[in-house]
């Protein structure tokens, strides 16, 4: 059963209601599937959301084919309507980091032709892997441009282009992707294929500091 992905419909949604479709005990906890969810599953370099379903803790979230599986510390009755609450401090921090990474990667690509070949969001820092070395002097220039992008408070636009439109778009991607492709665009800074969730405007990212 295909789940309604509320985190794409409204990435600022912090609380929602849904119906439990299945619940099975596993080694990782109780695997709960819902007919709709605002919990973002791990993917695209972004960590999953955490929070609660009723009084049950959501420990991890994974996407498997068309299902989004919530690994919980307790069972939930199938057919029951539950209230999901996102750990918003964690989610918003991850969105800030991810959008900040797009700004930096887009600027590096535009300035030096370098490609982002991987990144990881940790608790304190984001690590980005580029396919070409960048000098400290150039990184300082990237940092200045990135913060100008934050101060400009540019809208972050996420959408699925129609197949014909996608063929006309130039965008960053690590590999060729079959349609449909979700595009995240920050006008003047980046356009990239991305399945993650982001802040609404670049001003919400806050200060960008490149430390090494």
Chain-wise SSE layout:
Layout: E1 4-5, H1 6-9, E2 15-26, E3 29-34, E4 36-37, E5 51-53, E6 56-64, E7 67-72, E8 81-86, H2 88-112, E9 116-121, E10 126-130, H3 136-151, E11 156-159, H4 163-168, E12 183-186, E13 190-193
Parallel strand pairs: 1-4
Antiparallel strand pairs: 2-3, 2-8, 3-7, 5-6, 5-8, 6-7, 9-10, 11-12, 12-13
Helix pairs in contact: 2-3
What does this structure look like?
Helix 2 packs across helix 3. 24% of the residues lie in helices and 33% in strands. The radius of gyration is 18 Å and the shape is elongated. The termini are far apart. The mean pLDDT is 95. The protein has 212 residues and is of the alpha+beta class. Strand 9 and strand 10 (126-130) form a beta hairpin.
């Amino acid at each position: 059963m295909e789940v309604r992905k509320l985190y794409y419909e409204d990435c600022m949604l912090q609380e929602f209601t849904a119906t439990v479709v299945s619940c099975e005990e596993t080694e990782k906890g109780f695997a709960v599937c819902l007919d709709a969810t605002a919990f973002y599953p791990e993917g695209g370099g972004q960590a999953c959301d955490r929070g609660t379903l009723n009084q049950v803790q959501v420990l991890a979230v994974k996407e498997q084919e068309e299902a989004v599986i919530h690994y919980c510390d307790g069972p939930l009755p199938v057919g029951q309507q539950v209230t999901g609450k996102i750990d918003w401090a964690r989610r918003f921090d991850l969105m800030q980091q991810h959008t900040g990474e797009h700004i930096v990667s887009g600027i590096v690509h535009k300035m030096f032709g370098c490609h982002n070949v991987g990144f990881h969001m940790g608790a304190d820092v984001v690590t980005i892997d580029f396919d070409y070395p960048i000098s400290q002097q150039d990184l300082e220039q990237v940092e200045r441009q990135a913060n100008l992008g934050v101060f400009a408070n540019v809208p972050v636009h996420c959408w699925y282009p129609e197949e014909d439109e996608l063929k006309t778009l130039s965008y960053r991607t690590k590999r060729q992707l079959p349609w449909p492709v979700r595009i995240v665009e920050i006008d003047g800074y980046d356009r990239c294929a991305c399945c993650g969730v982001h802040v609404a405007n670049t001003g919400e990212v806050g200060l960008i500091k490149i430390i090494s």
